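Appendix B, example 12.
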Amino acid sequence: IRIDAANVKTFIVATTARDNALDGIVVSSLASGSRLTIAGSHFEANGRDGIRVLASGEATIAGAISSGNHGNGILNQSANMNVTSTTAANNLGSGYVVFLAAGPLAIESSAATGNALRGLHVNSGSTARISNSVFTSNGTGLENASGTLQSRGNNTVAGNGTNTSGIITALAGI
């Protein structure tokens, strides 16, 4: 699935994208005011990333599974992205990636498990916020490479090759 149109509202519900040569879905032209919503969908065994968002705008992912991809489960380059009740598992890259000053990426009540590289990778200049989520059995559970990684403090990060790398700051609640 490829989305190249700007200033659109796209809804992907109860869809499976499997065994594609590149990505399960790639979004390359969202613009300010554009919205992407993915709900109850599966992205499996794709040649690169399960979900790849390369453009700005708003993205919401709920109840999705991105598993067994040859790249990352979910990659966010520049959208404001909210991920809830989603699993990124057994990918050859990382479960979740935020980079190139993307974000913020918010992950709530989600899991990253069995990913070869990292459960969550935050690249330089990017921001990720995590709460009530599980990061287990990854190469590295949480990796902050000079970005901003904030945690509510109620996550499970255990059983990874390395549990954490880089600075993780507390995210205060109300």
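The mean pLDDT is 94. The CA atoms of residues 61 and 153 lie 22 Å apart.
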